[in-house]
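Recap from last week: sequence in, structure out.
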Amino acid sequence: MTNREILASLEKASVIYRTESGEGRQVWSDVSMDIHQGEWIVVVGPNGSGKSTLASVLLGLSPLSDGQFVHKQNQHRLTRGVLQIPDAQFIGDTVQEELDYLPNGQNLSTEARKEWYIETLSAVGLTIPIERTLNTLSGGQKQLLNLAAALAAQPKILVLDEPTAMLDPAARNEVRQAVREAHKQGTTIVWITHRLEELADATRVVGFGEGRISFDGEPRAFFYGEGGELPVMTPCMELGFDPPFVVKTAIGLLQQGCQLDLLPLDMEELAKAVATLCP
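Predicted structure tokens:
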């Protein structure tokens, strides 16, 4: 798929969770994938398909039951993540304490550190006082703070598990813009989501189904299928998803015999594609 450097690889990986009764529940079976430098991978799949397990494995929170997780030397130290439950990641009691645990600001002077606090928070659209206690923050503010801390560590791989699930539309846009900036600076993104409109940022889509990878390819192939003709069932539909509005509109136009110069992933691309139909 790409000649870029491989940062991490999963090879025939399996994960079995032990239940309270001692029985094993297999959540992954024979999962293999490479993560390359500079990719933006969006991971999708139905509930219980194993997509969130990927975040746990990459962040070292879930051991493999079988197979291998191979990463570049010291790469695990350069992987940071934002999980679904914000409180599970906090270390300090205040915003300032949470940021002070990051190595980036520990050697700064008092004045420089104040500026660094502001820059770190504003990168994700937060303007809260650093004295605020974490238990007074809203769920969305907590998630944005976790993202700010992860970005401030300047990781090689940034793993995000449903990072916009608790956010309103404005905050979701702030998160996506902050991650786009990190990606432009060379950070590799692994973004796990159920919001299919977020695939528009992806360079690659990995689809999980029943603990296995059922699709691994480009976003347009995920939504529209491979080849010249629109298939009856696209990979998106095979995973049980209802395509987003933009894709459904484009598919409707294609089924009516319209020729689109571009298979759109977002509203901007849809507007360009429809504009070519108008004389």
